[in-house]
Amino acid sequence: MRKIFILIIVLISTTNSYAQSETAENAAIEKAILSYIENFFENNYDAMNVSLHPRLAKRGLNPDGTLSEDFPPKKLKELMSTKPKFEVKHQNNAVENITVFGKMASASLRTGYPNARWTEYMHLVKEEGKWKIINVFWEFKKD
Asked: Which residues pair with 131 in a beta bridge?
């Protein structure tokens, strides 16, 4: 009976430890994604770039259904120097569907401007203890 009691305690402790670890990883992933999108909208390239992997692949479907051009970090920097700012207080960003497997993760981000909404599907990689966005593919919401 004592062995069963000890086994139950160990299992509960292990489960709680795993749940806390998973919650911490999900929070770190959400933080990286929100830092990326909030700083993108505010044209703060240096702060946004902290969340990006140097080999970022970013592209999506244009509203007409054609594939967009590629946006590696350098191209994003050029884009951000020409577009208007969109303050965080006006943004409506929601990170969803976080899935972690080892040092890789996927998630979706619902975002956009008031008159144009889209979803971005992302892949992240954990390097040197930090989550970095390595792949982004988006599609605009159909009305």
From this structure: 126
